[in-house]
Structures are given as structure tokens and as C-alpha cells.
Design goal:
The complex is a heterodimer. Chain A is of the alpha+beta class. Chain A contains nine helices and 18 strands. Chain A has two domains: 232 residues, P-loop containing nucleotide triphosphate hydrolases (Rossmann fold, 3-Layer(aba) Sandwich), CATH 3.40.50; 95 residues, RNA polymerase II/Efflux pump adaptor protein, barrel-sandwich hybrid domain (OB fold (Dihydrolipoamide Acetyltransferase, E2P)), CATH 2.40.50. In chain A, the strands form four sheets. A six-stranded mixed sheet of chain A has the order 6-7-8-3-9-10, sandwiched between helices. A five-stranded antiparallel sheet of chain A has the order 13-17-14-15-16. In chain B, strands 1-2 form a two-stranded antiparallel sheet. In chain B, helix 4 packs across helix 11. Classes of the chains: A alpha+beta, B mainly alpha.
Chain lengths: 336, 305
């Protein structure tokens, strides 16, 4: 496996705030890799360090085993799709896309054919002469992609590229981005705070929190085996039970996380499970295909799901007492 | 009574254009009648002419004054001199002003920016005449510049510069070079502020995107930053250019005995009593500005607005 990117012990401070704290990261060639975390967790700073727009205080950045820590952005073989797209407002679509080819002094005829090809790839044929201000958000996004992809970069950095789009368009662009990545076979490094986006698109995800990486793994593993309470809580919905509470209530010697889909409501189907809890319903949220039910018993808070089909009527009410249970195999031990 | 007022207020709320008209009427009257009206009346005088024999203005439409303006080599000299000076001053102010504006827009913290605003605006708080006269003293033969250069044993350099044809003269305070310096200084705030405002609106991500696409700092400057700052430079140069075209005090205090448009207007409408010729002279800056803005627009100076 070829290493596309390697970050070694990257540290970065802004005044007194630590943005990146001893970051180690290896990304393979051709991977769709996401940097996921809440805002202010350091993921965008990390992307800027990779792109060369921020100089790390210490540590090394290597692209394809070549140390590029001190190399300015215009000499790195990576391209960035910026959060606000950063299209040049005084140039039309064609001139924007052609910008890097002009800089490289590629012959005019070749420029034209490459622009034509990339614009048809991102489905923008016919928009050549439009100014960015005359395009919709989704179209601007495509221009930004085309402008980067025309360089055939080895690595494409994407900084929350879908953040400004509405939900439907975002879902559509997620599919298109994934297709583009397969088609061009480029390494994508994708910054997002949207866990659903990261889970559905990525080969691997790095979870950022407070300038540190909490976990690097495949979406599947991150969801099923979160290593820390933060990861378990940040990815999907979960119920966290502290070590103290686990010992007191369940005679279990570790803090753990349990996903709502693994908690059964005993009133409707009887089964023997290792963990049982008597709780009171505190909130019911309708989610379309299911109800999300928040329950409480003293210090213990649990979230479970309740699926209903059309025939059955929903018979759980606020304040009802429920008996919940789950199996040991479904819980994930976490470090408290 | 109250209900009538309320009805009126409701009526205005529903008919916003009438409310707007009520608000705009006083300034429009002021601008239209007192300002533009008197200007047009004055400019219209350029179609009258002075009776050479009696020295009185003849109120008959004729092009003879305008023909007189452009047929006299002395007048043409005045026009060319003024337009060239105004262009050079605008260019100088842009070259000096751009780095200051760029620093203000891209590198300062909010506190330092306030300091810069103050430093740039502060000269405008003192009288224009005071500033011009202090420049006269600074540039004079016994002034601080000659004194300082003498201390550095560089008097020969000043003398060499003053010996240059056209821009030189007996001292800095009586030369085109001195006029250029004073004009550039006096109008500099009008150049810096619009450029700074236009640069402020260029997001840093655009500059980063340019680097990202392989452009060096120099290429980024010429292909991204400068085109986007052009509306600001154009706006600033419209100020410096038109202010220099019309000024008559600086040429009077600093300059040589050679006339500029402002002085020509001043003497013709004053001592000479030749209002038509003065009016014809004042047509020129307006025409020049119209041409200037037309070409600036054509060259795309306002495309990034």
C-alpha cells in the first residue's frame, strides 16, 4: 500500500489555544479519508497544514514519502476545494477552471480540450461563459471541483464542501463526489462535521476532538467499537453508562456504551438478556420510520428505538414505566 | 384628528414610493436646483463670448469661446500641463497608497487598523491651507529637506535632481516635482481608503486558492489581487485626478509661474472678467473625467464590483 500522506507529531498553537496536539496520521493512496469532529476540534487546521496554508509549530508533513513541511502551497501536488468555494469573481467558469493551466503555460488548444472534458465530467457544459455570481450553490461547488480536478492532483483536500448546500442537494453531491473519487482514483481528504456524511462516504475516518485524534478506523468499526466516550457519543446516538453506575446497577466492571437499536423494550417481546433496567419514559421523538424514546431511572439515561407498522397503534406514553434489556455482546466497553 | 394622521400614516405605509419621495425631495431640490442648476448655468456661459472691443459679455449662442480656448497654444499648454500632472499624481498616489491599503486590509489587528484610520484621516482635520504652507516651508531652499540632506552631505543629490529639465527648478518649493509631492500627499487619503475597502472585500480564501492552483505570490498579485482591487484604485484615482484637475491653491503656492486650469478659471472669472472663457476652461475637467471613467469602465475597472 502506498502512503499518500503522513503526518508525524504535528503541533500547532494559535496564541495560547492548542489547535493541533501531537497529530499522527497515515493516509493510503486512493483512500476516501474523512477528518470528522465538532467545530473548533482542529480538523480544518489539520487540512490547512496538509495544503501548506498553515505552518505547523513542529512535526513533519510527507506526501508520497517526500517531506513537504517547508514547501509552499503552490509547489505541492495537492489541491483544495474551499469551504466558500473561493471562485474568482472576476473570471467566468471557463477562466476559473483554466486558471492553473494558464499558470503552467499549457498550450491553448490543450487547455480548451481539458476544460471541455472536465466541465462535462462535472455536468457544467454550456456554463463556460457564466460568472460565479450567476450560478447556484451546487453549480459553484462543481466549478470548484472542476478547477481542482483539472490539475489531476494526487490528493484532493475538501473543506466542508457541502456545508452550504441544502439537504437534498447535499445527498446528491455526496453520491457524485464518491463517483468522481472512484473515477479519478485520487486520494480524497474530506473535512466535515456531519457524521452521517462521513459514515456514508469514507473508507476511513479520523475523529478529532480538542486538537487530538480520538480514533482512526473504518466507519463500520467506529460505529460498532468506539474507543472513547467522545467517539461513541459523537457518532450516532448512544447511551453512556459510567463505570460507577455500571458497577452499582449491573454489577459490571467497566463504563460502556450501548446503541439504541440494541436496547429492547420487554413489554412487547419477552426475552432473557444479561442487562435489565426499569425506567420511566421522559421524551418521545417521532423520526419517521421509528420513535426515539428517551428514558430515565435515577442517574441512568437510556435511549431506545421503537418501530411501528401501520396496523399497530403506538402505545407508549410519556411517564410510562418500561422494562429495557440488552445483551452483553452489544455493548462496547469504553475508557471512562 | 388622530385618526386622520393615522390614516395618513397607513397610507404612507402602503405607498412606500410616496414616502420615499417625501424623504428625497429636499436633498433632490438642493442637488438639482442649487448645485447642478448653478453648475449648468455657469457652464452654459461657455457658449457666450466676450466682446473684444467693449470687454462685455455678449449673450448670444456661439462656439467662439470654445474655439478660442482650443486655438490658443498657451491655453492648450495649460490643459496638457494640468492633465499630465493629475495623471502623474494619481499614479503616484496609487503606488504609494496600495501597499498601505494592503497592509491595512490583510495584516492588521482591529486595534492597529483604528490607528491607521486615524493616521490617514488626521491630516484632513487640519486646514488645507495650513498643510500646503507647511509643505512650502518643508520644501523651501532653507527648509528641512535641504537641511537634512546637507547633514547627510547629499546636497549634490538635491541639486542634481533640481537641475533636471522640466521637473526641476530653483528649489523644491518652486518646481513641478514639489507640486507633485504636495498633491500626492494631500490627496493620499482619498486613494488609500477606497483601495483598502476593495481589498477588505477580497476573501483570503481567494488568495489561498490561487496559491493552491500553482500561482506564485507575484502571479497571484497580478491575476487575482490587482483585478479585484481595481474598482478601489479606479474610485481613488477619480478622487485624486479630479481634485488635482480643479485645484488652484497648490499651483499658486508651490508651483512655478506657469498656469494650471484652476488658476486659469480663477483669473478669467475674477480679474479678467471673462466668465465665458472661465466656463469653457471648467468644461475641460468634466469632459476629461467623463472620458476617463468611460475608459476605466471599458477596461473592466468596475467588473469586480
Amino acid at each position: 500500500m502506498i502512503k499518500a500522506l503522513e503526518l508525524k507529531n504535528i503541533n500547532k498553537k494559535f496564541n495560547e489555544t492548542v489547535a493541533l496536539d501531537k497529530i499522527h496520521l497515515e493516509i493510503n493512496d486512493g483512500e476516501f479519508f474523512s477528518l470528522l469532529g465538532p467545530s473548533g476540534s482542529g480538523k480544518t487546521t489539520c487540512l490547512k497544514v496538509i495544503g501548506g496554508f498553515e505552518q505547523p509549530d513542529s512535526g513533519n508533513v510527507s506526501l508520497f514519502n517526500e517531506n513537504v513541511t517547508d514547501i509552499p502551497p503552490f509547489k505541492r501536488n495537492v489541491n483544495t476545494v474551499f469551504q466558500d468555494y473561493a471562485l474568482f469573481p472576476h473570471m467566468n467558469v471557463e477562466e476559473n477552471v483554466c486558471y492553473s493551466l494558464k499558470i503552467k503555460k499549457i498550450p491553448k488548444i490543450e487547455q480548451e480540450s481539458q476544460v471541455e472534458e472536465i466541465l462535462s465530467t462535472v455536468k457544467l457544459t454550456g456554463y463556460e461563459k457564466r460568472k460565479p455570481s450567476e450560478l447556484s450553490g451546487g453549480q459553484r461547488q462543481r466549478v470548484a471541483l472542476a478547477r481542482s480536478l483539472i490539475n489531476k492532483p494526487k490528493i484532493l483536500l475538501l473543506d466542508e464542501p457541502l456545508g452550504a448546500l441544502d439537504l437534498k442537494l447535499r445527498e446528491q453531491m455526496q453520491i457524485e463526489l464518491k463517483n468522481l473519487q472512484r473515477q479519478f482514483q485520487i486520494t480524497f481528504i474530506y473535512v466535515t462535521h456531519d457524521q452521517q456524511e462521513a459514515l456514508s462516504m469514507s473508507d476511513r475516518i479520523a475523529i478529532f476532538n480538542d486538537g487530538k485524534i480520538e480514533q482512526v478506523d473504518t466507519p463500520d468499526n467506529i460505529y460498532k467499537n468506539p474507543k472513547t466516550a467522545f467517539v461513541a457519543d459523537f457518532i450516532g446516538t448512544t447511551s453512556l453508562v459510567s463505570k460507577q453506575l455500571a458497577a452499582k446497577l449491573f454489577n459490571y466492571n467497566s463504563a460502556f456504551s450501548i446503541r439504541p437499536e440494541n436496547i429492547k423494550i420487554n413489554n412487547e417481546q419477552d426475552s432473557k438478556s444479561e442487562f435489565n433496567a426499569k425506567v420511566v419514559v421522559t421524551d418521545i421523538q417521532f423520526q419517521g420510520s421509528y420513535y426515539k424514546i428517551l428514558c430515565k431511572a435515577n442517574d441512568l439515561t437510556l435511549t431506545t428505538l421503537h418501530y411501528v407498522d401501520k396496523q399497530k397503534t403506538f402505545k407508549i406514553n410519556l411517564g410510562d414505566s418500561l422494562e429495557l434489556s440488552w445483551n452483553k455482546i452489544d455493548i462496547t466497553n469504553i475508557n471512562d | 384628528m388622530t385618526s386622520a394622521l393615522e390614516d395618513f400614516s397607513n397610507y404612507l405605509y402602503r405607498n412606500k414610493h410616496i414616502l420615499l419621495l417625501l424623504f428625497l425631495l429636499p436633498p433632490l431640490l438642493w442637488l438639482g436646483i442649487i448645485y447642478l442648476g448653478s453648475l449648468i448655468v455657469f457652464l452654459f456661459h461657455s457658449f457666450f463670448y466676450l466682446d473684444g472691443f467693449t470687454g462685455k459679455v455678449v449673450y448670444k449662442i456661439s462656439l467662439s469661446t470654445i474655439i478660442e480656448l482650443f486655438s490658443s497654444p498657451a491655453n492648450i499648454d495649460i490643459l496638457i500641463r494640468t492633465v499630465v500632472l493629475a495623471s502623474v499624481v494619481s499614479l503616484g498616489a496609487a503606488i504609494i497608497g496600495f501597499p498601505i491599503a494592503y497592509y491595512m486590509a490583510k495584516y492588521t489587528t482591529p486595534k492597529i487598523k483604528v490607528f491607521f484610520y486615524l493616521a490617514i484621516m488626521l491630516p484632513l482635520w487640519s486646514s488645507y491651507l495650513v498643510r500646503v504652507y507647511s509643505w512650502k516651508l518643508i520644501l523651501a531652499k532653507e527648509g528641512i529637506i535641504s537641511w537634512f540632506l546637507a547633514k547627510l552631505h547629499l546636497t549634490w543629490l538635491l541639486e542634481a535632481i533640481l537641475a533636471l529639465p522640466v521637473i526641476g527648478g530653483p528649489s523644491l518649493s518652486i518646481s513641478y516635482l514639489g507640486m507633485f509631492l504636495v498633491f500626492t500627499y494631500i490627496w493620499l487619503p482619498f486613494m488609500i481608503l477606497p483601495i483598502q475597502a476593495s481589498l477588505e472585500r477580497v476573501p483570503n480564501s481567494l488568495i489561498n486558492a490561487s496559491y493552491d492552483l500553482g500561482a506564485t505570490k507575484r502571479q497571484t498579485f497580478y491575476k487575482v489581487i490587482l483585478p479585484l482591487a481595481l474598482p478601489g484604485i479606479a474610485a481613488g484615482s477619480i478622487f485624486t485626478f479630479s481634485l488635482t484637475l480643479g485645484d488652484y491653491i497648490i499651483p499658486y503656492i508651490i508651483g512655478t509661474s506657469k498656469f494650471f486650469i484652476g488658476q486659469a478659471v480663477y483669473t478669467h472669472q475674477g480679474t479678467a472678467g471673462n466668465i465665458p472663457l472661465a466656463a469653457a476652461f471648467s468644461l475641460v475637467p468634466i469632459a476629461v473625467m467623463a472620458v476617463y471613467i468611460y475608459f476605466a469602465k471599458k477596461l473592466g475597472a468596475f467588473n469586480a464590483l
